[in-house]
C-alpha cells in the first residue's frame, strides 16, 4: 500500500494500552495523566480486526507497543493470534523489560520475532530519577541478558543531557552481548520541547573507542535507524535522528493508539478514529477504506522544527511508543 507521495507503507505500530509501570519524565508529565477507561481501549478482537484489514492491504509488519504492553493481561496470546493473521510476516515488541523475564518462554513460543528494550542509562540511581520508580537498570539488564541469543534484541536509549556520560557504557553492551544498541533523539511530543542532547557527536565519541565503526550497508529491522558496525562488536550501533536528520521521505509506518486512532504521522494530532467502525457494525470494506484514506493522507514530513505547525499534545504513552 502506498500513500499519496508514493511511499510504501508496510509497518503498523499497534498500541494495546496506555498504562505503564514506569513514569519516565520524557514520556509522562510529572503529575501524571488521566488514563483511558478500560472500555475506551480497543479489545484484542478489535485490534486483530484492524490487523487483518491492514494485512490485506499490504501491511505485513507489526510492532506491539504501549504504554508498557506487558502490563495488559493476555498480551502473549494476542501476539500469538496476531502472528497467525494471514499476510503478517513479522511481529515485534517494544517494552521496558521489567516484566519480560517470566514471559520470555511464552513469547518465544507465540512466535515473537524480536524485542526492543528501553534502557537510557546503566546507572541505577539515574535510572530511578528518569523513570520516577524504584526499579533499577540492573533489573532491565537481567532481561536483556535473558533475551540475547534467544530473540533478536535491540536496546533503545533516548539521548538525554544527563546521560551523556552513559554513551560508551551503553554501547559496550553490543560488545558484550549479541544485541544492537540504538541511540534515539528525543522528540518534542506532548507539548514538551525536545531535550537538548546532540546526536551529531555520538559517532565521533563512539569512534574514540571503536575507530573502525562504519556504516552498515544492509537494512536491519523495519524502522529508520542507521546502523554502524565494527568487528569488535557482536551487535550493531544504531542512530535514530528523527529531529536533526529527517527520515520522512522514506517513512513506511502508521500507528494505532490503544483507543483506536489511526495516526499517519507521530508529529501531528490528526488521525482517523476507527473505533466507531469497529463497534458500529461497519462492513470490512468500510474499515479497509478508512485505513486506505488515512494512509493516503499521510503528511510529507513531520513538523518538529516548525513552530508554526500544531504538534501532537498527547503524551507518548497515550499515542503508542
UniProtKB/TrEMBL annotation:
**Swiss-Prot/TrEMBL keywords:** 4Fe-4S, GTP-binding, Iron, Iron-sulfur, Lyase, Metal-binding, Molybdenum cofactor biosynthesis, Nucleotide-binding, S-adenosyl-L-methionine
Question: Which InterPro entries does the protein's record reference?
Answer: Aldolase_TIM, Elp3/MiaA/NifB-like_rSAM, MoaA, MoaA-like, MoaA_NifB_PqqE_Fe-S-bd_CS, MoaA_twitch, MoCo_biosynth_MoaA/MoaC, rSAM
Under Enzyme Commission nomenclature, its number is: 4.1.99.22
Q: Which PROSITE patterns match?
A: MOAA_NIFB_PQQE, RADICAL_SAM
> Known catalysed reaction(s)?
GTP + AH2 + S-adenosyl-L-methionine = (8S)-3',8-cyclo-7,8-dihydroguanosine 5'-triphosphate + 5'-deoxyadenosine + L-methionine + A + H(+)
Q: Name one GO biological process term.
A: Mo-molybdopterin cofactor biosynthetic process
Provide the cofactor list for this protein. Answer: [4Fe-4S] cluster
Gene3D superfamilies noted in UniProt? Aldolase class I
Domain Radical SAM core: residue ranges: 4-225
Q: Which domain of life is it from?
A: Bacteria
Under Gene Ontology molecular function, one entry of this record is: metal ion binding
Task: Read off the Pfam families from this record.
Answer: Mob_synth_C, Radical_SAM
* PANTHER family, per database record: MOLYBDENUM COFACTOR BIOSYNTHESIS PROTEIN 1, MOLYBDOPTERIN COFACTOR SYNTHESIS PROTEIN A
Q: Can you say what this protein is called?
A: GTP 3',8-cyclase
Gene name, Swiss-Prot/TrEMBL:
moaA
